[in-house]
Design a protein that fits this description.
The chain is mostly helical. It has 6 helices and 2 strands.
Amino acid sequence: MLNDAVAEFYAVALLCKSYHWNVRGKGFKPIHVLLDEVYDALVDMADDLAEYHAASGKVVDVTPAAISDSVSFFAARYVSVSETVDDVSGYLKDLLDRLKQIWEDSADPVLANMAQEMWQRLNKQRWLVDSHKPLGSTSQAKSAADGPPKADLAAMIREMLSVPPFTTQQKPQE
């Protein structure tokens, strides 16, 4: 299961690079720059998971075959900012679910804690990506001077604060 997560993190990192190079349209530069940050964070997290997996005596397989089996790649083409944001947000959501599964299923408190910390870092990256989504229909949106609609702001704050509680792991009995 952990090796699959490593491969999935690398696959999504590669997808982020592909979107980074192929995104086009209004709002290009901020999402282009952000995708580099997301890529770096994903590679860093994948490396941490791989190092932990290897330290536990298991072989890490991130061959091209292992990576390509973990997610569906899109055909290289130019992609709009809104499609990029929606797609990358979806991929990050899948990784968040994967991390939650790791910490919930792990009997190892170190791995569970590592997965929770990564979840928090990755959730922040997803929130930053999602901040590039439009506010909604023209009738719902306010002018930039007025700020976001209060309901949207409240929802954003709730999502930001929806960090799952750390589970308490008992120390192994000696």
